[in-house]
Specification:
The protein has about 140 residues and is α+β, with helices and mostly antiparallel strands. It is built from 4 helices and 6 strands, in the order βααββββαβα. The radius of gyration is 15 Å and the shape is globular. One of its GO terms (molecular function) is acyltransferase activity, transferring groups other than amino-acyl groups. It comes from Ruminococcus champanellensis (strain DSM 18848 / JCM 17042 / KCTC 15320 / 18P13).
């Protein structure tokens, strides 16, 4: 497996990965690819030319980093790829005070194994609206 911060997957590869893990984001391919391309950091994992996983980060550079995506193709799940990606991203942002992610409740155990914790004194707040892009003329 090749782990790299240097490679941007093709749009089709991104959409296929999100669809493979049944993420709703796959329904918005244009917005999804735009978001991945504009993340501050993109860590991808490759099995030759096959995109096996990806993780993104957005940060203000000193106080906060947010990890919007960590996905592993189902064919590669259970092999330690997700934990390795989380460790690499957490190492990259070790100097940042607050590391933030939002996950499904059934995934919390995985992130706890990566050193994250659920804080009872803080609560994630969300508002989800479908992406809107101006029409291209």
């Amino acid at each position: 497996m090749e782990y790299t911060f240097e490679k941007m997957p093709a749009a089709e590869q991104i959409q296929q990965l999100f669809a493979a893990v049944n993420w709703e984001s796959a329904q918005y391919p244009q917005a999804l690819v735009h978001g991945i391309a504009n993340a501050q950091s993109l860590l991808t994992v490759w099995d030759d030319t096959q995109l096996a996983g990806l993780m993104t980060a957005i940060s203000d550079g000193s106080m906060n980093v947010f990890f919007p995506y960590l996905l592993i193709d189902p064919k590669y799940q259970g092999a330690g790829i997700g934990k390795e990606m989380a460790c690499r991203m957490l190492d990259k942002y070790a100097h940042i005070y607050r590391k933030i992610l939002v996950c499904d409740g059934n995934k919390a155990g995985f992130y706890e194994k990566c050193g994250m914790e659920c804080r009872t004194d803080q609560r994630p707040m969300l508002r989800i609206d479908p992406p809107v892009f101006p029409t291209v003329q």
